[in-house]
Structure formats: structure tokens, C-alpha cells
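Explain my protein.
***
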Amino acid sequence: MIHKIFSTKKSARYATWGNLSEKTTYFWFVLHGSKMTCEQMLYKFSDFDPETHFVVAPEALNRFYANGFSGEVVASWMTKRDRLHEITDFSYYLSKLYHVYSNQLPNGTRKVLLGFSQGGTTMYRWLHARKISADMLIPYSCWIPEDIDLKVSKTKLNEMTTIYTYGAKDQFFKEDTHDKIIEVIKKNELDITFEEYDGNHRVDRTQLHKIFKKYIEIK
């Protein structure tokens, strides 16, 4: 038995929120976590001003039923099988979609990348593989991959303001998770500010607004 790889076209699903126009001041490109959909990320922005905020939420290329063989359909960015090829595929997909919209933005628009959980890890792998221009990076309750050298990423990570946020009651964070993430950050010489809050493993609307007001909003 010989396993081989064959490249083929694939349709990708994504969703947007807000009105892209000359009034657009903030552009968000947000990656969902495992077993989620693109819409679930957009719901978190429903109380942002749609005239000044434009949000693009790509959906991962791998879909499956959340429970058995029926019910809700969810998505995942990668698994351990053929992971390098999956990284190549989603890096191409994300870059192409990002540039479709970033090229339409009015001058001065602040560009923000946010990745939640597996979406945050995906975001780091994407930025390592491809050169992307953005102002802000928000890894949200995610693991920073330790198997790649982020110092030589195609995207210069330290040229973006990076705010790592997570809930103090995150059920997926063990006692030593924070310390291990710090080790990865030091090894890769990353400049990251931590913003902990009282929450669990989900995107918290209040925390999202707090980060926007403190770090992103143009005064």
C-alpha cells in the first residue's frame, strides 16, 4: 500500500458581518475554534457598530457532524493526519480570502487578527507560512505551537501589537499551561501582553469590548 497526495479544488465557506465602505475603521479577521462554525464567531460582534466594524470569519475546510451521523455540522482546521498538507491548504485559503477584503479597505483602517482556541494555533501556523500585514494579533485561549520557529515566520510577528487573552476558569487550561505558553513565548522571542479575565473557554463579549477599548480603538 502506497499513500500519495493529490491536490484538488475545494469550495470554502465563510461569513461576514458589517458593511464594508469608506466608513470602515476596523477590519477583523477571526478564526473559530474546533467543533465550531464561522457564524458562532460573528455572533460575538453583533453589538459592534456595523458601519465602522467589518468582520470576516472563515470556516475551516474540514466539516463533520458534532454528534455521530446527524445533527449540527461543525468544522476543524486540522488533525494529526497529513497535518502539514492541511496547514499548506488553509494557509493558502486564509491568505487569499484575507487579501480579497484587505485590498478593499479604506486608508487608515485598523486590521485585527483574532484566533480562538484551535483557531489561534491555526493563526500562528498561517502567519508562520505566509506574509500578512495587520496591526493587531489576538491569540484567544489557544496554544502557541512549539514545533515551529516563530522567529523566522514570513509575517513579522513582533511588528503587530499582540494581546493574549484567556479566562481564568478555562476548563482546558491545566495548572502549568500558562507557564508552558510562557516558555514558548520566550523561546520564540515574542512580545506579548497577557489579559486574563474571569471566564471559561469561550469568546466573552465583555472581554472583547474591553480589549477593543484598551488596545484597538482609535482615540
User: Anything to note?
Assistant: The helical segments are 38-42, 83-102, 118-129, 177-187, 205-216. The chain has one domain: 14-216.
